Amino acid sequence: MLFFVRISLHGIFGVRSGLRITFLIVDNTPVQNLVDFSRRNMPAVHPAPGMFGENELTPTIKRNWPGAMVRRIELNGFLIRGVTGGDPGYPYPNSEFPKHLLKLQARTRMILSLPPMIGPKTVAFHTLGCKLNFSETSSLTRLMEKEGFQKKSFDSLADIYVINTCSVTENADKECRYLVRQIQRKSPESFVVITGCYAQLKPREIAEIPGVDLVLGAAEKFNLATHIRELVKGDSAKICSCDIEQVNIFHDGYSLSDRTRAFLKVQDGCDYQCSFCTIPMARGKSRSDSLSHVLKNVEDLARKGIKEIVLTGVNLGDFGNLDPQSKRKTENFLELARSLNQTTQIPRFRISSIEPNLLNNDIIDLVANSDRFMPHFHIPLQSGSNRILALMRRRYTRELYAEKISLIKTLIPHAAVGADVIVGFPGESDDDFKETVDFILSLDLSYLHVFTYSERDNTRAIEMKPVVPVRVRNERNKILRNLSFQKLQYFTALHRGQTRKVLFERSRDKTMMEGFTDNYIKVTVPYHEQWVNQIVEWSL
């Protein structure tokens, strides 16, 4: 017997039992099977749901779904047998069944219930956005595994799909919607959970996306397992969020990259109010881990065989928590860096990104004299025009930025220095953009991360005029990407022939492998298993 099966999950998790109950909807079952079923089994009284008995099922259904019970049978929309919402249905007696419905083209439907299945529930994660999001996703994965869930790859079938979102750009929002549609096509019975920045900023908008079951804001994402157990498939999307002012607890986390590099979260939130940015509204006020707990996490990662740790945060240079009485930081990023440099066994540390006004000269000096902190800085620029920097509400000028780059290259000539740049910010004239290009040309930068400005709700910039046309934004993006390529080619060529230390990473295809030098030059070579997670002296 051939039929099409659509699966719906109702009450996939009991609050305490953790049992899974599945309902099978079998569409287009051959009409004759239903007719024979009706003639043989139509009772004089209405049975209770789930009590029709195994004898009423065809051999194919028995074989594929042992223990299944009939809940309801329909023919062309007419109820033949079953219950709805707990009340008895009204099956047709054989003598009254509409004969014109008994045609081969009739649309039939049989709804079956399966017995509870006991075992680990599966969960798959997908991360959008920054390294901080990746570290948090890894932490959520470990939390779910401790709760008895089994991790699956996002491409596999899973009971629950969790998308940890970003909302820095419009594309991140669009990608989230695309992923939900993919899940709906692949596994419509699965639960879909959205968390992260997008979920905090626009929970109701996300809840209206077809297929979304749960939206978790910044304060609730680490209570994922608890919320999952209370879900019921088919209900409207549940929103668990709060005002961002109430988000004040730091949750640590780290992500592992094939047991080679780890992204360690040490700070979260931001107290800056840049006019284009939604991060303070999505992640709350700046808060940090304690120095002692960071050192404990580093020790844990060292035991796992990690050779490089990338320190991450929303505003990493603002590391440290305020003393409630003195209103001063009890610890700062320089103290953290010194402790990591002196007391740990990890051979390599890398600073992910740090604001130019928070990158003090002592931090640069520490990196210059350290064997553990890699000669690599990523320092957001955003614009080379002081006028635009002021409109962006950035806390530095182009002159300060140039001073930092000059000091780095004086103390560490071989250091890699990357920069973020936004093009098409409201009011950015051709002259402003030219000023940015000329400024970048004058700096000894190694590469750029170029972002096209996109309007974000509830930011000051969205009200600013004049608006730069999207076509112009895209043209400017292309110009700076080309400039970034030239910068990177030049930086790489400067080191050709040198011998530098490369940490090689595991490759999935086992044909080629990649690694990075201390100063962040990518090296691609034929795969050698013995080089995985090893620091190798390499001639460039």
Overall description:
By secondary structure, this protein is of the alpha/beta class. Helix content is about 30%, strand content about 25%. Strand 13 and strand 14 form a beta hairpin. The model is unreliable at about 1-60, about 80-105 and about 115-120 (pLDDT under 50).
Structural class, from helix and strand content? alpha/beta
Taken from the alpha-carbon principal axes, the silhouette is globular
Strand content: 15-25%
Span of the ends, CA to CA: 64 Å
DSSP strand tally: 25
**Proportion of helical residues:** 25-40%
Output mean pLDDT. Answer: 80
Number of helices: 15
Uncertain runs are 1-58, 80-106, 113-118
* Main beta-sheet strand count, sense and barrel state: 6 strands, antiparallel
How are strands sequenced across the largest beta sheet?
1-2-6-3-4-5
Evaluate the radius of gyration: 29 Å
